[in-house]
Amino acid sequence: GPCGPCTELHYDRIGGRNAASLVNMDDPNVLEIWNVVFIQMFRNKDQSLTMLPGKHVDTGMGLERITSILQAKMSNYDTDLFTPIFDAIQTKTGVRPYTGNVGEDDKDGIDMAYRVVADHIRTLTIAITDGAQPGNDGRNYVIRRILRRGVRYAKQYLYPAGTTYEAGFFSGLTAKVVELLGDAFPELKGNPGTGMTPEKVSQVILEEELSFLKTLDRGIAQFEKFAAEDKATGTVSGPHAFMLYDTFGFPIDLTLLMAEEKGLKVDSDGYNEAMEKQRAKSRGEAKEGEKVLVLEAEQTDKLAKELNIETSKDADKYSWMSSGSGPKLAAVVKAMWDGKNFLNEAPEGAFVGLILDQTNYYAEAGGQLFDTGRITSDSSICTVENCQKFGGYILHTGTVGSGVMKVGDAVECDVDYERRSLIAANHTSTHLLNWALREVLKGHQIDQRGSIVAPDKLRFDFSYGKPMKIEEVQQVQTLVRGIISAECELQTQEVSLSAAKQIKSLRAVFGEVYPDPVRVVSVGPVKHTIDELLSNPESDEWQKLSVEFCGGTHMDNTKEAATFSVIQEEGTAKGVRRLVCVTKTAAAEAQHAANEFMGRVKGADSIADMKKLDEEISKLRTDIDAITMDYVGKDECKKAIDKLKEKVLAAEKEMAKAKADAAVKWAESMDVAGKNFIVDVVDVNGDAKAIDAAMKAINTKVPDVPVCFISKAADKVAALAVVPKACADKMDAKDWLNSCLEKCGGKGGGKPDRAQGAAKDPSNFDAAVAAAREYAQSKLG
Fold first, then answer.
1. Which of 260, 378, 461, 696 has the greatest count of CB atoms below 10 A from its CB?
2. Distance from C-alpha of 577 to C-alpha of 248, rounded to nearest angstrom
């Protein structure tokens, strides 16, 4: 790549000496602040250099390092580029203040978490403003990894025992970044090039935060289990690392970090191997996960030209009853493929792909999953586990269960029609969903961006630039349920492609190439036939219908779907949203789950003890995301839980006010006559705000007297020390505070005139109080 000689500017914090020997030696007092590269050559792969026709200077100065010098700070993190973010973090979490410890000195990991979160939210805010988005590929995956690493640090280290991380913590910090850097980088306040605003950036982060939080707790618990299992080898296995990624969304670098914290390594090669197996499986691998049966161009050419086998006829896939039954089809085995060779016969236990002269199986296409079932001959049975189409040849992949299957055998195709009926209900409902989305989101260009139709659910991706409002999801759901309840007959017919394209309400997939003739599928509350659509293509009545080109298998009547529920709404890429939905029994169960959970939420409202109620709220919030339920019903449950939380917060606020008022009254009544310092115990159960209220009261009463207030609860000690200017040359508030808290295993932070902190072990509380008095006595006499 482009390169050239460079010059570096280094700054010696101490000065007045020759520090040349300390340059680039990791001395904290001698740091590089500026680098200038004179680009004039190109470094080739063989390491040779070629002169460039154009030359220029590439220069860069470290903003944070320059700031640390100007503000006389030894660390970038002590400058005002970071401290306001730290303050915002503490305000949101209630964790102890940032103290600047690193490495072994940062025993509880909290200071590291402060730095990670602050660094990451700056990176995310700037990168997303410039157009990056959390995703699965390239730079977007880097953004996803950064965000998830930051969320994990915050959740594990910045929320004290008894508190709960809630979505919005991370995204809520973007405003502080814009406040700090927006004047210097005005694009942060609104980037016309990408269309991103601070509000949009915050929303993008919030969506990713919500997505990751759904699996984070379970992922951490699973990691702990794997770490214990793999402790003997000292390495988290590749399959374990891949499961954390595939099931819980843990990027591999997050697993590496968590493993390092426990003194473990990660089998990266094993992880990559598991990842490749998963990718191969998605291309059509057998369920054992070992073999991929695919017909490449070489094989389809051999079938046609050497073996003289015609392409598969599959018109009979439409001959069935969508209620879940259908005929068997007689066929002949024309070829067998094992992934390496075409076989004449396959023994019991062989995993092969059968090519028949004709079939009633549906080969995976257009988002609809393949059929399964059995293919039997007089002497053998093959269990069909997959069905794919390659160059016109349909490959029925499965295991020979008994006997020997041979080329030329007469066989009977027995499709699992019950499974297909579940798929059909979901496929037709996908069409209804597509129609309903365009009805509800009118004024927006709603185009299909992909779909998966499976027996258990349907997934539909579509173009839309923001999350759907809950009211919009509800309207879509109501429209689909309405057509299902109307018991509408489905119409299908193969017609000329040019004629079909004239139908006014037609919805086709952008970029898709359709055959001619094309199969038209229509359904809706207006009685019609396909011929009527073609004879009067401009009729506004057809806008009430779902009309699509489709080669899939469908319900005969919408009533077969029974009911419909959206269970998930999420973003998959910039400008693309995804709905996951269910029909039939799965939809009824999702609706029942929502109703049942709401009953539990209403039951919690009767809990009078606010502490127990808050514990139940935490359980409700954890449990609700682990249960598949109707999306609208889940939203109603979450809003009801939020109401419960408001009830708890109101009670806590009232209690805190009462506690603070009592502390102020106590401080105002103290006898301070003749005292040159005050060390006393505040009976507020370790409440930092109440201690602060008492401190303000006593400082007003005796503004020139140093004061240290200490309070304890069952599981903690809190303290606050204030030293007035009159005593600034005699004592330091931070030293005073730490002389006390170290007796209880804690530490504080702050400035010489005011410091606060906490400790987790109150068993040595009396010694802590005594130490505070001894310190003051030693300094003031």
1. 461
2. 21
| pTM attached to this predicted model | 0.60
Does residue 640 contact residue 603 with C-beta atoms inside 8 Å?
A: no
Residues 6+ apart with CB under 8 A from 574: 133, 135
Joined together, the tokens standing for residue 305 give 């030209």
Q: Which residue has the higher pLDDT, 319 or 403?
A: 319
Query: Which whole number is the average pLDDT over 152-169?
Result: 85
**pLDDT class for 292, splitting at 50, 70, 90?**
low
Give the span between the Cα atoms of 494 and 497, in whole angstroms: 9
Look at strands 265-266 and 235-236 and give their pairing: parallel
Contact yes or no for 552/365 (Cβ under 8 A): yes
Q: Cα separation of 429 and 619, whole Å?
A: 34
Other residues' Cβ atoms within 10 Å of the Cβ of residue 217: 15
Q: Please report the DSSP string for 103-129 in residue order.
A: GGG-TTSHHHHHHHHHHHHHHHHHHHH
DSSP codes joined into one string, 261-327:
HTT-EE-HHHHHHHHHHHHHHHTTB-TTSS-B----HHHHHHHHHTS-PPPPB-GGGG-SBTTTB--
Least confident residue range of 255-264, 490-499, 547-556: 255-264
Cα-trace Rg, the chain: 34
Q: Which residue has the higher pLDDT, 724 or 574?
A: 724
DSSP 181-224: HTTTSGGGG-BTTTTB-HHHHHHHHHHHHHHHHHHHHHHHHHHH
Using DSSP's 3-state secondary structure scheme, residue 679 falls into: strand
- The pLDDT-based confidence of 287 (bands split at 50, 70, 90) is very low
Percent helix, strand, coil in the chain, to 5, is 45, 25, 35
Residue 178: C-alpha distances to residues 121, 140, 392 (Å):
11, 21, 57
Other C-beta atoms closer than 10 Å to the C-beta of 774 total 13
Mean pLDDT for the stretch of residues 372-378: 91
75 three-class SS: coil
